[in-house]
Amino acid sequence: MVLFNALPIVPLLVYLSRPAHTFPTPRCTESLASVTASATNFDLSSGSPPENATVPVTGTFRVKLRFCEPTVNVPGRADTLQILVHGSTYDHQYMDPDFEPDTYSWVRWASAHGYPTLNMDRLACGESDHPDPVTVVQNPFDGAFVAQIIRLARDGGVAGAHRPFKKIVYVGHSLGSIIGNEVISTVPDLIDAVILTGYGHKIGNPGDAVFLPANEVDPVRFGDLPSGYVTSVDAEARASFYGPEGTFDPAMLAFDEAHKDTVTFGELVSVTGTKDGIVGKPAPDFKGDVFTVAGDSDQFACTEPKCANLASEEQFYPAARSFEFAVIPDAGHCINLHLTAPILYKTALNWLDRHGY
Ligand SMILES: *[C@@H]1O[C@H](CO)[C@@H](O)[C@H](O)[C@H]1NC(C)=O
Predict the structure, then answer these.
(1) Which label site among 83, 207, 268, 307 has the fewest CB atoms less than 10 Å from its CB?
(2) For 179-188, what is each residue's pLDDT tens digit?
(3) Burial of 319 by CB count in 10 Å (0-12 exposed, 13-18 middle, 19+ buried)?
(4) Span from the CA of 51 to the centroid of ligand 1 (angstroms)
């Protein structure tokens, strides 16, 4: 017993999580697509959001896309595109990290099960354009911009795809889920299914997640950005996106900290419907399938013990064909980056399979 207690927990879990498999590397095509979108944003000149959005915004910006073909052929799935949208202060690496991708990459997992994926650096992240972080990059414009990317993909216009897609599965994390929610709320016919991770309408206390202007946090990487681009201050603040010690590999946190990206002031304050701690609108006309998933120690998505609050997410999707939620053990907010990521992927695959995707 003493011997077992003396074993360091983290290396043990890291060892246990080492995958027995090696996923084949998918064939991917990267492109910088020019996308035009229009939305009605908020007037944030006072520093806080007014009740209603009133400012029309139109713009054409380049977005870095990465389309990957599946590595196995599963009939029916080749025409079902998974669109992967990361959250705030991340880029495409959240859904497809270079660090131990056999454990952590949603893209590799999806490819190995027959699904094509479209991963991206969201607008204002990574190699995509960085428009005005206050007037342009807000939740309404983000939603309209992603909707345009989905239209492009659905019609076969994304580099490397060479075909239109019959079904679209939207996979979001955190702000990426809020944006997905905005899309199915405003354009309910564009998407067949949503997997919304790290998000519930009633948002919890973000705890130690302190954000500062990115140009101060890391002048080498972000020195050219205006101060409306912010990011988490250090690895300790970053750790508040994770579960307790032992649920993640410290080397993953170090990789994440070294590759962290930004979020805009406009995004942080413009998420609609913030009254009573509610973040994001209902999607009363969305008729597809909804799957809400969070890690059991996600401080943002879980406001009740064991994330029991996620059951009440169903009320926001009254016309949905189906609603389910799942809680992944031993995981915090950045659910994909935990040692239990393979459980998340198995859970999502099972849900997709049961719903005919
Ligand atoms: C915001 O919009 C709602 C619904 O259209 C309206 O009832 C309300 O008066 C508006 N609020 C303001 C401050 O204009």
Answers:
(1) 207
(2) 999 999 999 9
(3) exposed
(4) 7
Q: From the CA of 33, how far away is ligand 1's center (Å)?
A: 36
What separation in angstroms does the CA of 289 have from each of 284, 292, 304?
13, 10, 24
The label of the residue with tokens 């250090």 reads 234
**Both tokens of residue 132?**
């005005």
Phi, psi of 145 (to 5 degrees): -70, -45
For 269-325, how does the pLDDT look when each residue is reduced to its tens digit (9 = 90+)? 888 655 677 888 899 999 999 999 999 999 999 999 999 999 999 999 999 999 999
CA of 42 to the centre of ligand 1 (A): 13
pLDDT of 5 strictly over 90:
no
- For ligand 1, say whether the CB of 52 is within 6 Å of any of its atoms: yes
Q: How far apart are CA 323 and CA 186, in angstroms?
A: 19
Fold designation for 2-19+29-354: Rossmann fold (3.40.50)
The answer to whether the CB of 51 is under 6 A from ligand 1 is yes
* CA-nearest residue, atom 3 of ligand 1: 52
The residue whose CA has the least distance to atom 4 of ligand 1 is 52
Q: In terms of Cα–Cα distance, which of 174, 211, 156 is closest to 293?
A: 174
Strand order in the sheet with 55-68: 28-41, 55-68, 117-121, 80-85, 167-173, 193-197, 289-295, 322-328
Helix-strand-coil percent breakdown of the chain, rounded to 5? 35, 20, 45
Substitution candidate for ligand 1 out of 52, 54, 55, 272 with most atoms within 8 A of CB: 52
* Ligand 1: centre distance to CA 19 (Å): 53
Taking the C-alpha atoms of residue 175 and residue 66, their distance in angstroms, rounded to an integer, is 19
Mapped onto helix, strand or coil, the DSSP state of residue 55 is: strand
- Cα of 50 from ligand 1 centre, angstroms: 10
